Amino acid sequence: MTLWTDRVRPETLGGLTGEVSLADDAVDARDAIAVEAPFTGEEIGTVPAATEADVTAAVERARAAQAEWASRPLERRTDVLSRFHDLVLDRREELLDLVVIESGKVRRDAFEEILDVATNARYYGSRADEFLTTRRRHGAIPLLTRTEEHRHPRGVVGMISPWNYPLTLAVSDALPALVAGNAVVLKPAEETPFTALRVAQLLEAAGLPEDVFSVVTGRGSEVGPALIDRVDYVAFTGSTETGRAVARRAGENLVDCSLELGGKNPMVVLADADLDRAVQGAVHGAFTNAGQLCISFERLYVEEPLYDRFLRRFAERTRELGLEAALDYGVEVGSLASSDQLEKVEAHLADAVEKGATVVTGGEARPDVGPYFFEPTVLTDVTPEMDLAREETFGPIVAVHRVADAEEAVERANDSAYGLNASVWTDDGERGRELAAGIDCGTVGVNDPYPAAWASVDAPMGGMGDSGLGRRHGREGILKYTQSQTVAEQRGPPIAPPDVPGVPRDVATRLYARTTTGLLRVLKRLAEVR
Questions:
Q1: C-alpha span between 225 and 69 (Å, rounded)
Q2: Could you tell me which of 345, 412, 410, 354 has the C-alpha nearest to residue 385?
Q3: Same structural domain for residues 8 and 157?
Q4: CATH number for position 439
Q5: What is the DSSP string of 29-42?
Q6: Do 183 and 274 share a domain, yes or no?
Q7: Where does residue 93 rank: exposed (0-12), middle (13-18), buried (19+ CB within 10 A)?
Q8: Are residue 351 and residue 310 in the same domain, yes or no?
Q9: In 3-state terms, what secondary structure has residue 314?
């Protein structure tokens, strides 16, 4: 097909393999990792499988570059983010081509990644000064103690990103780390390295110094542990199983980490919800990126009075979704990313059907469209013993459940080890927000599947339970890449029992205790007045 060979190789992938951070120039001596286009299964290029020595070299170069980068005035670092923001928008169509070709998602879903990266660049570029500037803190003794909090970069941040959002997850988290003065070494997924390599080029074009952001391609089993062992902080996005291994290794090294992991996300639809809006929200929330989204819905709980109408309309709309292997904006659902994903989806569905689940619509692979395409699928009669009832499917399958009332819906929504994203649909916004606060997830939308919470980058986003540790976005999303330091100057008598010549030590100590106790009572009253 000329679409993938003539258009992609010379224009979209040209020069990218030379951007991989390696220990030396002996690329030919390394194994090559083939990268395929999920739409067709064709190989679109190769990248070298980096070794432990390559990781060591990349981190050493990053550490050397980081000191100079951190010494630059913050304004110069934020300027890089501002220029990068504009470059991402200017190169939008090229980036979209690359994301679509490499991941198999449709263009309209890939565009969410452009929006996300630009939004994060703007936000941290404009707010970094507020978060990183030295702040005065209340001292131990008013007027006599001056206390300041400084924020210092951690050093070299190691990032391990997955394949499902190759642009967003390669750079959006890296931006606050960079502007805070860190260097970043990124290990992208084997399936989607070229998007990460293009990001590195754009950051350099925006003025980021060499080696402050570098990419090491390779297999996770080799590159991942080597990276964790050498960096000062680890940011990982991926499966819960792998996240546990990352956390254990980081803990052994006494290195802090943030982990965004899996989800089994619920959507609650109350009887008073706008039916059309709820159905469209369910389609968006369940089938974006063919369900390969950590915050997508896999469980729907619909209140009894609306259940039949909702299920009928949801199935009808799902049945209408078009599958196609194309670069156009109009395509609704794309491909699963690989044969492994297709096998998992098929296995979950087969197990559910064998144990009594009903396929309302969908349920079939579509090799006529492409090797890894699978129809958007709606199930009912899903019970707890089925694999897909509690395990993350990460594909276009959603189970719809009937519930008696909102209380049962929330109870069942919380009946999961995961706690990443949820939503509540109701005509009563106040009630919706109240119910949302009772769902054990890091983000909960009201009358929105996920974009409103995800795009509110001034607010933290992350998981509870098995969905991870730490947060991205907002103040927490940048401060995690820093070390806090407290500097306190005592301007008067020391905070210690005085050593008074001629006064017995026990007398002086009792006087100190009495005086300090009185001071604490005064400080408490002052705090209560404020």
A1: 26
A2: 354
A3: yes
A4: 3.40.309.10
A5: GSPEEEEE-TTT--
A6: no
A7: exposed
A8: yes
A9: helix
In this structure, is residue 212 part of a structural domain? yes
Residues 147 and 275 reside in one and the same domain: no
How confident is the model over 198-246, as pLDDT tens digits?
999 999 999 999 999 999 999 999 999 999 999 999 999 999 999 999 9
Tens-digit pLDDT profile for residues 490-517 = 998 899 998 888 889 999 999 999 999 9
pLDDT band at 18; cut points 50, 70, 90: very low
Contact 493, 144 (CB under 8 A): yes
Q: Tell me whether residue 464 is in a domain.
A: no
Residue 470 in domain = no
Give the ranges where 293-386 is alpha helix by DSSP (H): 304-320, 339-354
d(CA 164, CA 159): 15
pLDDT surpasses 90 at 76: yes
Is the same domain home to 213 and 134? yes
Q: What is the span of the domain harbouring residue 30?
A: 2-261+475-483
> Cα separations (Å) of 494 from 136, 412, 497?
20, 57, 8
Is residue 321 domain-resident? yes
Q: Domain check: are 196 and 222 in the same one?
A: yes
DSSP 459-511: S-B--EETTEES-BSHHHHHHTTEEEEEEEEE-SS-SS----TTS-HHHHHHH
Please, what is the Cα angle at 393 between 388 and 399, to 5 degrees? 50
Q: Which of 286, 277, 313 is nearest to 432 (CA)?
A: 277
My answer on whether 283 and 240 are in the same domain is: no
- Please give the positions annotated as active site: 260, 294
Which tokens hold the place of 173? 């988290």
Q: Are 254 and 379 part of one and the same domain?
A: no
Q: Match 């009808």 to its residue by tokens.
A: 316
Going by their DSSP bridges, the two strands 265-269 and 421-425 should be labelled as parallel
What is the DSSP secondary structure assignment for residue 28, as one 8-state letter? G
Please count the structural domains in the chain: 3
Q: At what angle do helices 74-90 and 193-205 cross, to 10 degrees?
A: 120
Q: 432-471: per-residue pLDDT in tens? A: 999 999 999 999 999 999 999 999 999 999 999 999 999 9
